[in-house]
Specification:
alpha/beta
């Protein structure tokens, strides 16, 4: 079978304490990754694949063996894997790229797929207007803060991170599926196309909603949903972009 499809997935949140059966969730995602091997030319992970990840210099965090193994299998089969950092997996450094053979991108990715121009980002970097959130992101990306965090024993940092993530999700509001004129993602897409030229597809994650709409400039804006509760993903065949669902066998 020809490897002609490009796949997109975001917000898997492996390891989240909000998942009733984390092992079953990981197996479902790993099985899906293995299933796309015959047709996949490329895979884009648009952030938050892991609910928390911090790469220590000499220690590998526990878990996610089946997921990493499935990614490695894809990479060994010649599938190009690109992982765009999200707000939950911002602390990926060189371990996963080296061991698995994937590319990590922090920020906006502007690339051409089958002759179509794609602009991708997790969605928080260009779609979060809250000043408090942006301050927090600057702290997370600050090298001094990262070194201080690494100096604390993982028994406390990992527990703290998972508790914070669970509390934030339980206390948060459901994102609206409506992408209005004043939506930050729509504003970003409009300004980006004005400054950098026509874009065929803008693709984002982060909001955990599934949406697809045609913009006034001719671009298509896509929100992937998530592989956390909705179990959705995107696929591009060179002409059409579809959002599909991962089903249990």
């Amino acid at each position: 079978m020809d490897k002609k499809l490009t796949y997109f997935i975001s917000d898997i949140h492996l390891g989240s304490r909000c998942i009733a059966d984390p092992r079953a969730h990981e197996r479902l995602v790993a099985d899906w990754l293995i299933s796309i091997e015959p047709t996949a030319r490329a895979l884009y992970i648009l952030g938050d694949a892991l609910d928390f990840w911090y790469e220590y210099r000499t220690v590998v965090p526990r878990g996610f063996v089946r997921f990493f193994g499935a990614l490695a299998r894809l990479a060994d089969a010649g599938v190009k894997i690109t992982w765009l950092k999200g707000n939950h997996d911002v602390w990926i450094y060189d371990y996963l790229p080296t061991e698995i053979g994937l590319e990590v991108v922090d920020g906006v990715l502007d690339t051409v797929i089958d002759g179509r121009r794609f602009v991708m980002e997790h969605g928080d970097g260009v779609g979060e207007p809250r000043a408090s959130y942006r301050r927090m992101q600057r702290i997370f990306r600050n090298r001094t803060c990262q070194r201080l965090f690494a100096a604390i024993h993982p028994r406390w940092t990992v527990e703290f991170a998972h508790r914070w993530s669970a509390h934030s999700r339980e206390g948060g509001q459901e994102a609206s599926p409506v992408i209005g004129e004043d939506d930050p993602l729509r504003i970003f897409a409009r300004r980006y196309a004005e400054e950098h030229g026509r874009v065929d597809f803008f693709v984002f994650g982060h909001r955990h909603i599934k949406a697809e709409m045609k913009l006034e400039n001719g671009s298509t804006l896509i929100l992937l949903g998530d592989a956390f509760r909705q179990m959705t993903y995107g696929v591009f065949d060179g002409e059409n972009f579809d959002i599909r669902r991962i089903y249990r066998n």
